[in-house]
Structures are given as structure tokens and as C-alpha cells.
Predict the structure.
Amino acid sequence: MISAKMEKVLNEQINEELFSSYLYLSMASYFENTKYTGFAQWMRIQSHEEYEHAMKFFEFIIELGGKVTLAAIEKPKAKWTSPKNAFEEALKHELHITDKINKLADLAIEEKNHAVGSFLKWFVDEQVEEVSHAQGIVDKFDLIGDSKGSLFMLDRELGKRSKD
Ligand code: OFO
């Protein structure tokens, strides 16, 4: 039910999602080390969501009768210059993932593979949400500037995030 090319790019997306999970886990560790436990909690949840995204691709490839082939996960960065810098990189990363999902959707159209196109719709919508969330947080960092008190409040607010 899927071409060799489609199988390859779906497998590559498992790797992209697992790297996302690893990157956000690394950010969680960075925030724990710098005592921003609220930001760390937000990143832990994000990391878990990314693992779930990887598993959606994993199960879908199998459902299509394809073969899952796992590859090495790139080592993530471990340090950022500030909390704002970490969230800016999270936003940049989500824009990269959006581009990957869009390219996958383009291939589904090109190959007239409606099953893959339908599966990807959830991810297209999810990416709109992910980019909007990350952008919203970066905007808040811009608003608070150098205010330590506001940074503390933001850390507390983001720490309320729980698993949906
Ligand atoms: Fe899987 O959405 Fe973020 O990377």
C-alpha cells in the first residue's frame, strides 16, 4: 500500500519526532539545572507528546503493511543562553517540523496516496497548534523583557501544563 519512497520518508519522520522528543527532554534538563522548574515541566510534557507523534507514524507504517526501520537519533544541544533562547529554538524547530510534514503531504498528493494524505491531516493541524503555542510563549518573553518578577510568573504559569 505504500511506495518505497513513501516508506522511507515516513520512517524518517519517526526519527524527526523522536529527535523532537529528545530535544525537548534536553531542554527540560537545562531548565531543571537552571531552577526554572515550571519551564522544565512544560518541556517534559512536550517531549512526551513528541514521543506519541513518533508512535503514530510507527503504528501507521505497520498498518499500511510497511516496515519500520529505526535510525540513530542525533544528540541534542544541552545548553541555551537563556530561557527565551530555548523557546526561540523550540519555535524554530517546530517551523522545521511543519516544513517536513508539508513535504510529506506534498508527496502523498503526488503519489495520489489518499490514506497517507488523510493520516497526515492530523499532523498538519497539530503543527499549526504547535507553532502557535511556541510563538505565543516567545511573544510573552518579548513582553516581559528583563523583569525577573514576570519571568518567575511565566515559569509558574507554564508549569501548570499537564498531559492532555
Ligand atoms: Fe511532533 O510536533 Fe513538534 O516537533
